[in-house]
Amino acid sequence: MKHQKLSLKDMPDLVMIEIFFHMNPESIVVMSRVNKQFYDLANENSLWRRKTKKHFPHRLPNGAEKFKSTYNDEYEKIPKEKRILFSLVKEGDIKRLKEILTLCDLKLNDKRGQSLLDWAIFYKHQIILDFIYEIVKQASNDGKGILHPANTHGFYEEVTLLHWAVLCNQPSDIIKKLLADGCDINQDIIWYGRPIEIASELNYTKLIKTLLKNKAECVYYKYGSMHTALYTAAGYGNIEVVKILYEQLITNKPDVLNKKYLNENLYIASQNGHAEIANFFLKHGAEVNSKRSFDMTSLFIASCRGNFETVAVLIKNGADVNAHNNDGTTALYVAVQINDVKLVHFLLRHGADVHQCRYPSGVRFTPIAMAASNGSTEIIKALIDKGANINYICGMGMTSLHHAVKHGKVNAARLLLEKGADINAKCKNKTPLDFAKESKNQEMIELLLPYHRCSNFSEKNKKSNHVNLSLLNNKKIHTTNASSSQNSKLNLG
Q: What is the CATH number of the domain that holds 240?
């Protein structure tokens, strides 16, 4: 029985869309010109949302038109005929790259300063990295003088062939050959640092071991400060590299691993959300409540970045949940500020103080004032449940209700009113209703007016039932027993 061959036009639409997805964007555009069916399929928004995720993972995925504008924006500074190179690298199309990629093309970079090499590293296209290294190797006679692949800062820098070999994750025999040919294993360049730092950043564990065996320095001093590959690995979250380098230091340079240095590594790991590495340094002597510049603790910086798992590790290891920086800002305050509901609940469960104020330039702000400004009703409820004072007047004279009204957060204002917020509180002689009128927020005005009227009625009622004794002077008040007769009267003098 003979197999019947299907032409592309006979393929089901879903199959064709999948075929298009595995093409580079430029080829899809060419295919769209074949016939109307291909044109319609090539403009399918779901296809371009997937393409956006693949080609521009830092951008929000959207449809065909948005991809086109993103493409032109990202590659604005790249000649149109060269833009396809970036697409080919991202798609892993080594066959086409071998036909058209040149050494000069390695100098190209996109809007974010990313080169073809950077994208090949990002997608771990080793076959492309091998090809790039071969291009560079062929252009280098002495292992030196190869230009830096990117030009973000307006200058090029000579990069040794050893640096290129490490960047392209070449095997140990190539590294050893370059070292035998005279490449300096500890040569530092401005853009990438030393070979061991490159390998530490890119998580090349095999290369790390090769470099260490060939006497790569783990520590060096530059401009009076200490730089280490371990710090680099900690910042990029490469736990296996961290363990390898730590063992190297503890064996050969244990004095480097003092409290200050361990604390620095804990801080960078916490800042970048690497919970496992933070835990590693805590177990090896880092101080959980140590402070860096501006009195910031590791817990504080982890909370600023919304690094929940790291926060949990730090608190489990005894972090002071109410430690604050030099202007009084706590982990709770920044969690409220970034509107991280899960983190707020977690910090509150572990004793975060809802009353601790932030006081930049002496002006005090409470977490609930910040929550009101953001309009997060769930966070407001959580803070109130823990005893937050909704009528606390901050340094600007505003209550939480003022903040909610000022920022147009109707649901937050409604919740605060239901919880007893003072409708008549004044900031520079203005009530929340005055704020709403000034901003011409009709929805907010309609919310506040009934509370305002009710408050005014209550005040008037109090006044009407109040006897002003000062008007009576020395007049005597005569009364009869009210219970003795239905006609008993109250006689005033």
A: 1.25.40.20
